Amino acid sequence: MAGMNVVGDLFGEGKMFLPQVVKSARVMKQAVAYLEPYIQASKQQGSSAGKILLATVKGDVHDIGKNIVGVVLQCNNYEIIDLGVMVPTDKILKTARDGER
Hints:
Keywords: Cobalt, Metal-binding, Methyltransferase, Transferase. By secondary structure, the protein is mainly α. The chain has a single domain (about 1-100), classed as Rossmann fold (3-Layer(aba) Sandwich). The protein is built from four helices and two strands; from the N terminus they run H-H-E-H-E-H. The protein has helices at about 1-10, 20-40, 65-75, 90-100, and strands at about 50-55, 80. Strands 1-2 form a two-stranded parallel sheet. About 0% of the residues are buried. The model has no long low-confidence stretch (mean pLDDT about 85).
């Protein structure tokens, strides 16, 4: 997590550019995927900090920020429901109302 903070700081200062941010996010996502079983094993049942619904709306294929936010929240004990990219608004609203995937 601290590494992504450094990436954010460098990007904000203009010392890192979008291609490097994208690569950093991909590496972090792979690392979290590898560590996921260990993260889940260390969590206590029912100790979720909350449930978060993520998606990009129909017409938007840019999911870099969504994916970074999802990884950060997941590492901080939030349950993430990720609907993906180009999701119709009615599906987002239905999922939010139903509380399911």
